[in-house]
Specification:
416 residues, alpha/beta, 2 domains, two-stranded antiparallel ribbon, 52% helix, elongated
Length: 416
């Protein structure tokens, strides 16, 4: 009984403590936030109490204790210091010692920001805000002056983290991998579009793993994809069961060069979308209705029959569309051989399209980047901030569990 009552009693105590603080603030005429407000004073007291406790431990005795007499080192007053916190600037008094050997950890020497402030900066940067906009945000919300140079230094701290992330070892087997590229504007002499190659792996536990970000030159190309996939293999991925991609020419050959047993699946959404590019808008609704039986057929034979029916109806009016489907047929049909649960998860690149949508929001806010490293840093910060609560991870795993059971049967002996 006492164990079950403990947490409840703690919650009540915290609630009563908060009520007491609010009552005290009202009596004193204090605001809740802002300079001199309740939260400001509370933060000041907590930080100063922690620093005094550190000084006690450093000296080996408490304040005003007789044990400190003749010890060779003692307190030597305090020095004022303003630190930026999540609630704004807070002025604190940092204790000093006569030997100048005290190295505080709660607020270190020359530290002007608590770590939570750095996380705020990184979060705002991940959402696409520029250094100037973040600086203005701190001025407006916290009444604190944070220079653009300081913000740049904070974001630069993630570069080493990004390098380590980009080179980390990967799982030996990936049941599925989704690959795609987005384009960002980079000012390199003149503003031009540069492709950023993105790969997502699905682990045998059903977890999503963004494998990396790679900057290319010019347009998206199969040759550069070959180097990206080779790097992924060199980081430990020995086998990929199914790779889902768009219809880029030469990409299936690049994938099978790295993983000969990988099944290459063209994204159905991309294929249908490309179909409409060759058709008049007034034909879209009817054409979509006629295409659906093709990609929902129970087998390749049935799909071929439905495609012939589609060709008989639309081939004369739109010959480029029928040519598109015949050219991409070998990369279109693999998923027709699989269980419906596998079909659901590999019929499109939606898994990576949702990630690209987050990237595009961050990129759109910037307009263009001064350099490729600046663009990669922005996209990495967006990757870093993808799932702060962990709910997306839980949904992803739940969605993939039925498919992974089907994968284990279909690719028996490969998924271990």
């Amino acid at each position: 009984m006492s164990e079950t009552m403990g947490p409840m009693a703690t919650e009540v105590d915290q609630h009563e403590f908060a009520q007491q603080l609010l009552s005290h603030a009202k009596e004193q005429g204090l605001e809740l936030v802002g300079p001199g407000g309740l939260l400001n004073k509370l933060t000041k007291n907590v930080l100063e109490t922690a620093l005094e406790a550190e000084m006690d431990e450093h000296l080996g005795y408490g304040k005003h204790e007789v044990a400190g007499r003749g010890s060779g080192n003692s307190r030597n007053g305090t020095r004022s210091k303003t630190v930026l916190t999540e609630i704004g600037p807070v002025e604190i008094d940092v204790p000093r010692d006569t030997g100048s050997t005290f190295e505080p950890q709660t607020v270190k020497k020359r530290q002007r920001r608590l770590t939570g402030v750095d996380e705020i900066v990184l979060s705002l940067s991940a959402k696409g805000l520029t250094t100037g906009e973040i600086s203005a945000h701190f001025a407006d919300v916290f009444g604190a002056k944070v220079s653009k140079d300081t913000i740049s230094r904070i974001t630069e701290k993630v570069v080493a983290e990004m390098t380590e992330w980009q080179n980390r070892p990967l799982d030996r087997v990936l049941p599925a991998m989704f690959i795609d590229a987005i384009h960002v504007k980079v000012r390199d002499g003149q503003v031009s579009n540069r492709p950023i190659y993105v790969a997502i792996g699905v682990t045998i536990n059903g977890e999503r793993d963004v494998l990396g970000l790679w900057a290319g030159d010019g347009g998206e190309g199969a040759k550069f994809w070959l180097s990206v996939l080779t790097e992924i293999k060199n980081r430990g991925v020995e086998d990929v069961c199914i790779t889902v991609c768009d219809g880029l020419k030469g990409l299936p050959d690049a994938i099978n060069t790295v993983w000969p047993r990988a099944v290459v699946q063209t994204c159905i959404v991309h294929l249908v979308r490309n179909t409409f590019r060759y058709a008049s808008r007034k034909s879209w609704t009817e054409m979509a209705r006629d295409l659906r039986p093709v990609y929902t057929s129970p087998s390749e034979t049935a799909a071929k029959e439905r495609l012939e029916e589609f060709t008989a109806k639309w081939g004369r009016q739109y010959p480029a569309i029928t040519r598109l489907w015949h050219n991409d047929w070998s990369e279109f049909v693999p998923f027709l051989d699989y269980d419906v649960e596998i079909r659901k998860v590999i019929c499109s690149t939606n898994a990576i399209e949702s990630l690209n949508a987050r990237y595009r929001r961050a990129v759109r806010a910037r307009g263009h980047f001064p350099t490729i490293p600046a663009a990669l840093k922005c996209l990495y910060l967006a990757t870093r901030a993808l799932d702060p609560t962990g709910r997306s991870r839980a949904r992803w795993i739940a969605r993939w569990k039925p498919a992974l059971n089907a994968f284990a049967i279909t690719f028996e002996g490969r998924i271990t």
